[in-house]
Amino acid sequence: MFEVNSNYGELQGSYLFSEIASRVAAYEQAHPDADIIRLGIGDVTEPLMPAVIEAIKKATDEMASRDTFRGYGPEQGYAFLRDAIAEHDYKALGADISADDIFVSDGAKCDTGNIQELLSPSSRVAVTDPVYPVYVDTNVMAGRAGSYNKEAGQYKQIVYLPCTAENGFDPALPKEKVDVVYLCSPNNPTGTALNQLQLQKWVDWARDTGALILFDAAYERFITQPDIPHTIYQCSGAETCAIEFRSFSKTAGFTGTRCAYTVVPKTVFGQDASGTKVSMHDLWLRRQTTKFNGVSYIVQCGAAAVYTPQGEAEVTEVIDRYLKNARIILDGLAKIGIKAYGGVNSPYVWLQTPNGMPSWDFFDLLLNQAQVVGTPGAGFGSAGEGYFRLTAFNTRENTERAVARLGNLSLT
Ligand code: MLT
């Protein structure tokens, strides 16, 4: 019989959000009349904005005519979108990123999951704890994580950097030699963000130690405070040691439409087994041209519309709406004496479970007493235990109803 990839056997349970979905489905089956409000998975509820829809319709019409029809597009993405990204998301902030450094893709989840293919199997990987599970699980699949230590709730070869209220959600630099670190700011799940000094510290460390930073900035559009960098390339030297991931999912409601991009500057180099310098840009280009045929023209036209004056205004309106939801959740939690973080530069609110309740117990309590779904902190790592994530992505009405229900919880 053929042999499977045994590394999959090291994965713990099912993917966090599948596990939650199946628990909620079981609850729904047992309580068919339950009016469940979902503040669990970070999926948006506002529809695509008019500027995007108009662009998508126009592009669809082009595809309907023999004169303007397009087949395969450039694997790296159409120049019109990459130029707009470089101009608006980087040059406007003084970050020296060119269209050529940008690879358009169908999701930051895929890109943050796929990027580890470029690393040696023996690379030492560090993640913050709690962490977006994709970073860890994809390294487990690749055999880079070692076996699982059940007691610690951690993989033996991954370096975990606690990121909790105790250290102000500012993870300490690794003490041991690390080749790669995943950072996410504004952070999923904690909703907190690294300021300029805190992020510069990581860039300086990476340059000093020869490490690579994989920087996930999928929630950049939610930043409201002036000292939070919008891109790691606002830090000096980052263009030599960092790859950045961005997405239109949360920015412009593309979770079901799929469009994202990854920035791999031509100045980021690793080395091969013989010590020869290798360009990460060249490797990623080779990987993408081999395994990916690009995002559809129609969708890229929709994404480009985000950068028009109309698109920018519409995006701002939707983001403000979600941020207001986050404020409503934060205020509601404060009213019932629950300490919470995030929600200011992020759509995620990270609360401390009442009386130190285990986070899966709080998940059950919330579902049973209030029919509200959230995400248990323990699902993001052992340092997430005692925390719980609520998203601001539901509608205003549902957010207000959920908060009212939280006020009626019986917590003793
Ligand atoms: C989340 O809830 O953490 C997000 O939906 C994850 C994702 O974007 O894949």
Characterise the protein shown here.
- This protein is of the alpha/beta class and 412 residues long.
- The protein contains 12 helices and 17 strands.
- It has a 7-stranded mixed β-sheet, with helices on both faces.
- Strand 11 and strand 12 form a beta hairpin.
- The protein is globular and about 60 Å long.
Structure characteristics:
binds D-malate; globular; four-stranded antiparallel β-sheet; alpha/beta; 412 residues; 17 strands
In a nutshell, what does this entry contain?
By secondary structure, this protein is α/β, with parallel strands linked by helices. The protein is built from twelve helices and 17 strands.
The number of helical segments is 12
> How many β strands by DSSP?
17
Give the spatial strand order of the biggest sheet: 2-10-9-8-7-3-6
**Radius of gyration, in angstroms, nearest whole number:** 21 Å
> Can you give the helix content as a percent range?
25-40%
Q: Low-confidence stretches at least 5 residues in length (pLDDT < 50)?
A: none
The global form is globular
What would you call the structural class?
Answer: alpha/beta
- Assembly of the depicted chains: single chain
Name the hetero compounds present: D-malate
Q: What is the averaged pLDDT score?
A: 97
Give the distance, in angstroms, between the N- and C-terminal Cα atoms: 55 Å
Task: Name the helix and strand elements from N-terminus to C-terminus, one letter apiece.
Answer: HEHHEHEHEEEEHEEHEEEHHHEEHEEEH
Amount of beta strand: 15-25%
- Main sheet properties: 7 strands, mixed
